[in-house]
Amino acid sequence: MSATKPYSTDPADLGFDPEELRAKYNHERDKRIRKEGFGQYKAAAGELEEYMVDHYVDPGFTREPLTDEVEVAIIGGGYGGLLAGARLREIGVESIRMIDKAGDFGGTWYWNRYPGAQCDIEAYVYMPLLDELDYVPTERYAHAPELLEHSRNIARHYDLYKDTVFQTEVSEINWDESSKRWIIHTNRGDAMKAQYIAMANGPLTRPKLPGIRGVEKFKGHTFHTSRWDYNYTGGSPEGGMTRLADKRVGIIGTGATAIQCIPHLGEDAKSLHVFQRTPTSVDARYNAPTDPEWKAKLKPGWHKKRVENFNNTLGGAYTDDDMVGDGWTDIFRNVGGIVTGDVDNLTEEQKDEVFELGDFQKMQEIRDRTDSIVEDPETANKLKAYYRQFCKRPGFHDEYLQTYNRPSVTLVDTNGQGVDEITESGVIVDGVEYALDCLIFSTGFETGSSYTSQSGYDLIGKNNTRLSEKWANGLRTHHGLTTHNFPNCFILGFTQTGVTPNATHMLDEQASQMAYIVKEARARHAATVEATKQGEDEWCDICDSYGDKTEQLLAQCTPGYYNNEGGGSNKNGFISGQYGGGAVKFFQILKEWREDGNLAGMEIK
What we know:
The chain has 20 helices and 21 strands. It has about 600 residues and is α/β, with parallel strands linked by helices.
């Protein structure tokens, strides 16, 4: 134990050598870095448009164009849009139109119906509006059908189906200064008007494909996990894909989605080849049905309390009162075990070091778990993740690693290089061709492009200001919700907000902030409410003040969508430009701003 530190850095005390692990992490990162960054992926467009097909609606839908007016138009029918609609209903807004390209509410959970799909944040904190709907999930980690049905129940509860338009894609939104209204143009010929717009597009709806040579050549059957083709596989989100019994299946990707569907593919396919570039850290999930006795003891307000406890624990509160007690919060319990005394008494540098040690310890536990489950030592070693836990979205599953003990399942590790080529009949890695009948892409979503590219439309505000141009060199907002020259416009998502793994909590805080602003504007009989340039500049300065530390941490990470695939700073990256003080501080800033009541940083006319 150091005389100046209330914790040890001695490998003999820790059970691992921090310097050796840092070197190993750096080696594994460096061999995966590709100079093209996000350029190694392709959008599902043009000749790849088939990967965007909606399998859950009947083809040929048409309707007459709309030119009517609503008070609030919400783009996006996932949990973000539903929260926006719910919080607006609660302040008395009656005229709301939801717009979504899908055939129903659900967002991520409308599209992601692959076998085994479920939330990887405990359902008791992830599923929103549980208190309001008086609902308790049926299991600790709810599966996709329940998550989708909860979306529909929210819409029913708040009467959000009224005036909603589905199977409709926004193509452009223009501000009309004379009428102080937004004009919303769509692929259905609409020119709808709205006093306010709320963009809750979500980042996990536009699938991306790997830019592998020959990706268009494969003559077998192929699809993306977010557009699962049960007509080909048979079965349902629960599994039972009997039509794969005589099929040689390959899947590219081993991220958060893949670890959920691979166990079902391994069980049902004649053979399964998993093509891996970077392993995911896979900890135990310990899923279980909801305990009826525990459920019976819940009191009103239990959900809000649990959500805030989870966020506080992840935010570094180091509390002993960890209500959730899962793999997400475990690392913070590890930190408490490393330090002798109060963590809060450490310097910022010491906190960073202790957090790294706790991370090393947790990741070693996860690697040891792999050894204890996977029978073949060579396969086990290839499945071990050597990077800090939050460099990629952590995985939790109780059957994934066990799948590699099946004789019909083969892990094809590419040593960090990815697949070499796709041919008419299969996949080539390191000179070896693997013949396949079906190739599945589990390669994630378009997250590294600009906000407007991900959304699929541009916004044209006051003074002919295009959002695509304004944000070309980075996000510029006030509190991550509004932006100057775009009056009566709210952006819900990862836009200079306090990032938390529990995205629905962040979206709810944004929705509540938006509802507060609309309520104030209505009370003051205002036509417009808009971020001032000064308010925006001040918030950007605050976000930028955390930039160096965030960039340094991300630069140490293995390539992924968090860090521009290892390509360095990217102003449009998934978490680029976010408020670096954490979600706990961010939510407190919003709360104090509301309590102040002056709407500082905004102009109301």
